[in-house]
Amino acid sequence: MLKKGLSLMLMFVLMFVSACSSGGSTNTPTATPKDGATAQPAPAAEAKPKGKLVFWDKSEYVKDYNDFQKERVAQFAKDFNVDVEYVAIPPADVKTKLLAAVEAGNPPDLLLADDFVAKQFVANNQLVEISDILKQHDFREDSKKYAYALEGWFEVPAYHSPNVMYVRKDKMEEKKLGQPKTWEDVKNAAIAMNDPKNNFYGLGFQLGGGGDSEGRINNLIRTFGTDLVDKDGKVTINTPQALEAIKYDASFFTEGLSPQGAVTGDDAYNNNAWLAGQVGIIFNSSSVYAAMKKDKPELLEKTWILPWPAGPKRQFGSGGGTAFIMFKKAKNTDTAKQYIKFFFDKDSYGKLLEKLNGLGGPVLNGLENTPFWQKPENKAWFDATRNIVPLGDPGPPDARASQVTSENILSKGVQKIVVNKMDPQKALDEIERDYKKVYEKK
Fold first, then answer.
1. Share of the chain above pLDDT 90, in %
2. Under CATH, domain 52-161+320-385 is a member of which superfamily?
């Protein structure tokens, strides 16, 4: 009996010590005074953070995005008693920094990046499988399309980023021109608006690589009638139609329709040129719309927001997705998963998208009927998320499409025509060669 009593007492002491040292007890034990006075709680032990979460995010062009994320991260750190290192990285630098971190064996616990960056790490068996997370939330089916890879589920969709064509309505009306609907219309409009002497150019296209220039050239080639790869991943880019397409893209620069610096411009180049009022047409996501709505409402009034143009053969929408990924070698994957769940709280997730004026389209079902997305200007953005063509289409959904995009193969090919005066057919031959190195390992 004495033995049993000692055991119970020892168990109580251990439980008390454990609760105080971990900070996990919300009801601090109190002593009951013999004289019946009110008991005073013992001082609470200071809670210790449960590890450290390293979260890398891409820095969006609209500053409000990262400001809002910082607020959410701070709230998560407070609610879950976790130290969080939040790092916002320019999209053009994400791949370089990430490769260095992975090679050093020190990747972030959580990464939020463009789909084409994320998919490159799938084939190397470096990512955490996330099908359990997909089951926890009501994701739209079209959201899961870009999260899928042949190897399995390794990306958690965060938001859609549809692209549109921005056109200076006031400049077009001055020239008595209607809305451009084809690539031929785009070039004709650019020629009509072009006014280099007054620092205004018909186009704000760039060739320095990144998703914007790669997406534009890819779209142009496909609308001229050529798929870059077929459904089996065989490279099919070297055709007379593709040759005409890259010559057409090169003409935007050789004919002086884009500013001279555009040849080396990155993804932020067209945003800056448009918001500075220096160009007449660009292709971009809703980040430009959000920036105009907040800081340049007078420019927004002078702007047409239109679908991507049709080519001689076909028409395609454009855009991409942003996704969470986690690395197997990361130190705090459990907390990373906890943050993803926190991120998708429907109220705060909806507020994130609303705060950004539609910068990202929702990946969850049930948000399309909210007052925000039912406004005509926002409904158009939501509808645009339904027509995004997956990266690498019609090829297999694997990391190869991401790799060729990240290597800027198309942009470099057109650059050679513009800067090095390379014969367009030779440039196309080199594009084909570089695509085969990735797709066919040749």
1. 61
2. Periplasmic binding protein-like II (3.40.190.10)
